[in-house]
Specification:
Elements: E1 2-10, H1 13-25, E2 29-34, H2 42-59, E3 63-65, H3 71-78, H4 85-104, E4 106-111, H5 121-134, E5 138-139, H6 148-157, H7 169-174
Parallel strand pairs: 1-2, 1-4, 2-3, 4-5
Length: about 180
């Protein structure tokens, strides 16, 4: 394993623009990883995936894409625990990221969720560190929120699809 390699969980293309740039500036060689079983409906999942593929082509990024649409797994996990849905969702996505990192021989993991002012940063940080530790990895925490507006601006300039909710059915309902 190379100490400067990082597998970056990507929730969507727009959030990855600044996140990727900032983590590269911090000295990491990044490989992206799209795994998002929480996204509903399927058409939203497909739009986000298409936007990420477009960005990857534009910027020559190395991205591993998990195309499985595992919404049922996500819903089974959060059913009757809706108040804990974010924690459960973070765990599901970061756990899969850690497994993929181990498979690829990558020592560091992080997530573009850290750019969002709408996510629970302390929970993400704690969850990321715990999961990384369980797999003998390192979770790279960086408060990327200062780059949120820049990332959205650049996404608009690149013609990428910008979503209006985190992806889960509960967030869509609140919207």
């Amino acid at each position: 394993m190379k100490k400067d390699d990082l597998l970056l969980h990507i929730c969507c293309g727009p959030c990855s623009i600044y996140s990727w740039k900032k983590l590269e500036e911090n000295g990491f060689n990044i490989c992206g990883y799209f795994f998002n079983p929480n996204i509903h409906p399927y058409s939203e999942f497909a739009r986000r995936l298409d936007a990420l593929r477009s960005l990857a082509r534009q910027q020559g990024r190395d991205i591993i894409i998990d195309e499985r649409y595992l919404m049922e797994d996500y819903l089974r996990m959060v059913a009757n625990r809706e108040e804990q849905r974010c924690q459960l969702c973070y765990r599901m996505r970061l756990e899969e990221t850690a497994l993929k990192a181990r498979e690829k021989g990558i020592e560091n993991i992080s997530t573009t969720l850290l750019i969002s002012p709408y996510q629970k940063h302390e929970l993400l940080k704690d969850m990321g560190e715990k999961i990384a530790g369980e797999h003998g990895l390192h979770f790279v925490y960086e408060d990327l929120r200062p780059g949120f507006r820049e990332s959205m601006r650049l996404a608009r300039e690149k013609g990428l699809y910008l979503q209006g909710y985190c992806g889960c059915i509960y967030s869509e309902k609140k919207r």
